[in-house]
């Protein structure tokens, strides 16, 4: 029998015993007779029943409190488990967002690096395409055009042409009748001018003859127009 069903039954028995015993005792006392052994036994039975009932009630209370405590503990464990799972989900989401942000930042950095590298290569190519020697004079004019063509025939293009143009711009301005007080004459400012006769008897009036002589002079003495130009910059003559 369960404690819940047992308690009312015991209570009923105890009540009957108590009432019965009281009645018996009252009747006995009213009659002025001594209490019999049977009456004493009834009293003891009632006391034992009451004790059993009290013990059962205490047990029921303990069981109820234990069940309630177990329920509360289960609820707390469930809440803690739910909170832990929510924390794990939040951490996983945060890690996923961090990984995505890191990946995106790496991609952006790689793109920027690639763009910068491409720009650097483009700039380097542009610099290499440009002359490394600064030109101090334009490239136009009939005598310059003729001189550029004759220099190119020797392979003197790019920087070498810029150096030659700078050199003879400083010497004569590419004027084939330029003359100095020192006796230098023509585009290359040969000193004396008559030296150019080795290139042609028309050295006084023909720009091509003067250019031919001047290119030969540079080739024999300096090797390249840029070497002659560097010497001129240092010495103011070549």
Descriptive notes:
The protein folds into two domains: 124 residues, no CATH class; 94 residues, no CATH class. The chain has six helices and no strands. Helix 1 packs antiparallel against helix 2, helix 3 crosses helix 5 and helix 4 packs across helix 6. The N terminus is likely disordered.
SSE blueprint and pairings:
Layout: H1 3-30, H2 37-129, H3 142-153, H4 159-171, H5 207-221, H6 225-235
Features:
238 residues; mainly alpha; 2 domains; 6 helices; disordered N terminus
How would you summarize this macromolecular structure in one to three sentences?
This protein has helices at 3-30, 37-129, 142-153, 159-171, 207-221, 225-235.
Percent of residues in helical segments?
over 70%
For the record, the count of structural domains works out to 2
Question: How many strands, which pairing sense, and closed or not: the largest β-sheet?
Answer: none
What does the average pLDDT come to? 83
**SSE string:** HHHHHH
Secondary structural class? mainly alpha
| Low-pLDDT residue intervals, each spanning 5 or more residues | 1-32
Distance between the termini: 132 Å
Over all CA atoms, what is the radius of gyration?
62 Å
Strand content: under 5%
* DSSP summary: helix tally: 6
**Shape summary:** rod-shaped
Using DSSP, what is the number of strands? 0
């Amino acid at each position: 029998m369960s404690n819940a069903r047992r308690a009312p039954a015991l209570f009923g028995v105890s009540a009957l015993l108590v009432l019965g015993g009281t009645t018996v005792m009252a009747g006995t006392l009213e009659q002025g007779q001594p209490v019999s052994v049977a009456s004493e036994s009834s009293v003891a039975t009632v006391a034992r029943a009451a004790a059993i009932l009290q013990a059962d009630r205490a047990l029921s209370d303990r069981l109820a409190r234990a069940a309630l405590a177990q329920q509360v503990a289960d609820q707390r464990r469930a809440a803690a488990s739910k909170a832990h799972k929510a924390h794990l989900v939040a951490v996983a989401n945060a890690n996923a967002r961090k990984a995505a942000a890191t990946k995106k930042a790496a991609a952006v950095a790689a793109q920027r690096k690639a763009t910068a590298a491409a720009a650097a290569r483009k700039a380097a190519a542009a610099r290499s395409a440009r002359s490394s020697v600064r030109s101090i004079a334009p490239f136009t004019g009939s005598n310059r055009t003729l001189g550029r063509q004759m220099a190119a025939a020797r392979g003197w293009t790019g920087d070498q042409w810029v150096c030659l143009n700078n050199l003879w711009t400083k010497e004569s301005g590419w004027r084939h009748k330029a003359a100095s007080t020192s006796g230098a004459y023509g585009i290359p400012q040969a000193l004396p001018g008559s030296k150019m006769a080795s290139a042609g008897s028309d050295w006084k009036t023909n720009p091509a003859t003067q250019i031919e002589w001047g290119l030969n002079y540079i080739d024999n003495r300096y090797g390249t127009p840029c070497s002659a130009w560097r010497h001129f910059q240092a010495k103011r003559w070549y």
